[in-house]
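Lab meeting, item 3. Inverse folding demo.
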């Protein structure tokens, strides 16, 4: 790599890091705070109760996640807690920063590493200029900036997935005998297996691996025992984890709704939500669409085009299969960002490299500048409110209550099932009135905290410990 290229690469990464520090100290009460709180709670409970990685625990003891089983131990069996081990481990080792800040840092550095792999992949199969453009879009898309500093495992999943694809490609290229003790094979295997453990949805994005094998070996890749070893051992840890967690169904959130909630798949509303509101408006700010479409129709060598296209096909399969999740939550589109970035880069490269007359080159540069500028501006307009704390009272109430009740107290913090308020209190408990109050006391509830109270008469039955315009704290074991 030339010095100029290296300097540009480092400059973009540094600026991307700085952008991701925007509202770095925010409490976990911004957009999708529910999912972030659940993730961070697992890490925080590793610190509280020990690193029992096979029994991750969060704060919610209710039957709301599973929609059936009570969860008195607060088990949280979703992805294997690689992200949480690193978040809690760094907090434990260094002591500086809060557990939430370490979560954000883990996501930020994962995103920056993912951007480097994105650059290397596009550089190899197109050229350095296109690779830099891919890096540029991956780093600066407002949607990606926000979600790559949230306390979610998705950024790390993207990093391990893209890294696994990159090293798998190097292994195929540099090792004609496909030796499985080659460090590139081992590193790719570890990264791909980790991506499945971090988010099983990564399975949908393995099509590029098959295309790489097909391009390199033809159909004979099906006969290569080394590739079967790779397939088996990359998915085996996920299978073991899924077998392990079914022993505790109370800790497994219900997930059937993710696939076709309300039979939404292929309906008009489905296409409107995914392709208009999410991809076109939220991520691409509308003006990125011409660059993306231009990238799709560019003349690229058949093998390279098939490889790039495999990212888009993977994304479409994922969107169509996991239709409910993609419509219901906008963070479910995080895995499709590389697909968008690749073709944004190819379309932009075409405009910026228009040959022949000065007028055509100037037109290409102007069109790119207008599309890119408006894309970032309008996408940011949609994203900027994501950083806001929508209900500051839950933060103030959580801080106050945290100082007023015992560390081992169990708390009812009703917030429509959302655990973000419970997380602020830093206690295990319930985020909704799962049962009648007397029964919940029998289940172990010690305190009730009502945020933004509006004339509640709870004080006639139980003793109010503290009351402010933000909250009411009630001792459920004392009468008034």
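The presenter then showed the designed sequence:
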């Amino acid at each position: 790599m030339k010095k100029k290229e290296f300097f540009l690469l480092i400059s973009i990464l540094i600026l991307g890091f700085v952008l991701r520090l925007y509202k770095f100290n925010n409490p976990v009460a911004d957009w999708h705070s529910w999912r972030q709180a659940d993730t961070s709670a697992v890490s925080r409970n590793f610190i509280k109760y020990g690193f029992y990685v096979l029994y991750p625990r969060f704060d919610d003891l209710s039957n709301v996640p599973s929609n059936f089983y009570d969860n008195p131990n607060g088990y949280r069996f979703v992805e294997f807690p690689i992200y949480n081990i690193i978040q809690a481990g760094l907090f434990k080792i260094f002591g500086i920063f809060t557990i939430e800040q370490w979560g954000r840092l883990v996501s930020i550095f994962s995103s920056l590493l993912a951007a480097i792999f994105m650059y290397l992949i596009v550089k190899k199969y197109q050229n350095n200029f296109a690779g830099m453009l891919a890096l540029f879009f991956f780093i600066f898309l407002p949607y990606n900036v926000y979600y790559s500093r949230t306390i979610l495992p998705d950024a790390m999943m993207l990093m391990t997935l893209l890294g696994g694809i990159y090293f798998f490609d190097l292994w195929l290229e540099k090792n004609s005998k496909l030796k499985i003790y080659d460090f590139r094979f081992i590193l790719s295997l570890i990264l791909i297996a980790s991506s499945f453990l971090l988010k099983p949805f990564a399975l949908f994005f393995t099509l590029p691996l098959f295309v790489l094998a097909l391009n390199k070996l033809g159909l004979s890749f099906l006969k290569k025992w080394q590739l079967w070893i790779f397939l088996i051992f990359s998915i085996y840890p996920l299978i073991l984890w899924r077998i392990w967690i079914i022993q505790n169904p109370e800790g497994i959130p219900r997930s059937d709704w993710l696939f076709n909630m309300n039979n939404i798949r292929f309906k008009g509303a489905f296409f409107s939500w995914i392709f208009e509101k999410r991809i076109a408006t939220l991520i691409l700010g509308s003006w990125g669409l011409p660059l993306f479409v231009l990238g799709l129709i560019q003349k690229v060598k058949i093998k390279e085009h098939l490889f790039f296209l495999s990212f888009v096909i993977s994304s479409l399969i994922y969107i169509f299969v996991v239709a409910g999740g993609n419509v219901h939550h906008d963070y479910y589109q995080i895995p499709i960002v590389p697909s968008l970035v690749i073709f944004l880069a190819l379309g932009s490269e075409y405009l910026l490299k228009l040959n022949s007359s000065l007028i055509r080159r100037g037109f290409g540069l102007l069109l790119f500048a207008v599309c890119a500028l408006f894309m970032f501006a309008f996408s940011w307009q949609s994203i900027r409110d994501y950083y806001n704390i929508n209900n500051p009272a839950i933060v103030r109430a959580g801080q106050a209550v945290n100082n007023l009740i015992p560390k081992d107290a169990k708390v009812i913090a009703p917030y429509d099932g959302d655990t973000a308020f419970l997380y602020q209190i830093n206690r295990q408990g319930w985020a909704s009135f799962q049962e009648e109050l007397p029964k919940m006391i029998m289940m172990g509830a010690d305190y009730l905290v009502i945020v933004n109270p509006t004339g509640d008469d709870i004080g006639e039955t139980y003793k109010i410990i503290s009351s402010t315009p933000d909250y009411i704290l009630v001792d459920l074991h004392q009468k008034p």
